[in-house]
Write a structure and sequence with these properties.
Layout: E1 8-11, E2 14-15, H1 18-23, H2 27-41, E3 44-48, E4 51-52, H3 62-72, E5 78-81, H4 84-87, H5 91-103, E6 108-110, E7 115-116, H6 120-140
Parallel strand pairs: 1-3, 1-5, 2-4, 5-6
Antiparallel strand pairs: 6-7
Helix pairs in contact: 5-6
């Protein structure tokens, strides 16, 4: 019998610069989109982990670390981001995050890329997308 899983989610909107807030997707815009998805899919929101003015170059971010602790403590079983690059821009960090998420029976979902790691295909595409993001960063820097 296929039971529907109840998701208790952590929402992770992040911007790294003032320009990103002005010209990209602001924290408020990201949060609104994340909440709309939760309403549509009947996800229960545990907490919004708003990260402002912090780069995704490392995982040493206060709200990110708080979210990971809550995942490890079993408070959330899904992390939702607006775009994967809000979570990380590093292939190595993504692999670490994916392994942690899997170890703690959690999953990742990205609205923009329509990626959800609840499936094997989603796990594959999340890694492929991050490889392409890293290529873009290396080509433009």
């Amino acid at each position: 019998m296929n039971e529907k899983k109840n998701f208790v989610v952590g929402l992770y909107p992040r911007v790294s610069t003032e320009d990103q807030s002005r010209y990209g997707h602001s924290l408020d815009e990201q949060e609104e989109c994340l909440k709309k998805l939760c309403d549509f899919k009947n996800y229960q929101i545990y907490k919004v982990y708003r990260e402002e003015g912090v780069s995704a170059k490392s995982m040493n971010r206060p709200k990110f670390q708080e979210m990971i602790r809550d995942m490890k403590d079993g408070k959330i079983n899904k992390i939702i981001v607006y775009k994967l690059d809000r979570l990380t821009r590093s292939i190595q960090d993504l692999e670490t995050i994916c392994n942690m998420v899997e170890e703690y029976n959690c999953s990742l979902e990205s609205i923009s890329e329509e990626i959800n790691t609840d499936t094997a295909t989603g796990k594959f595409f999340i890694r492929m997308h991050t490889i392409l993001n890293q290529l873009e960063i290396e080509r433009t820097s």
